[in-house]
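Checklist before submission:
- one chain only
- standard amino acids only
- sequence pasted in full

Submission:
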Amino acid sequence: MHWTGKLSEVVYGTIPFHLIMFVLLVLLVLLVFWPEIALWLPQHMKSG
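Returned file contents:
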């Protein structure tokens, strides 16, 4: 089987997945250093 695609097509096709992974990594880092972000909504709902 011979592959006829270009490497640039593969790279461009994977960009959305890399962006999603980068965003999830940033969110994980934020949650590690500021866990209050994850706890804000439950505390807000409980106090209201």
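Reviewer check: The chain has a mean pLDDT of 92.
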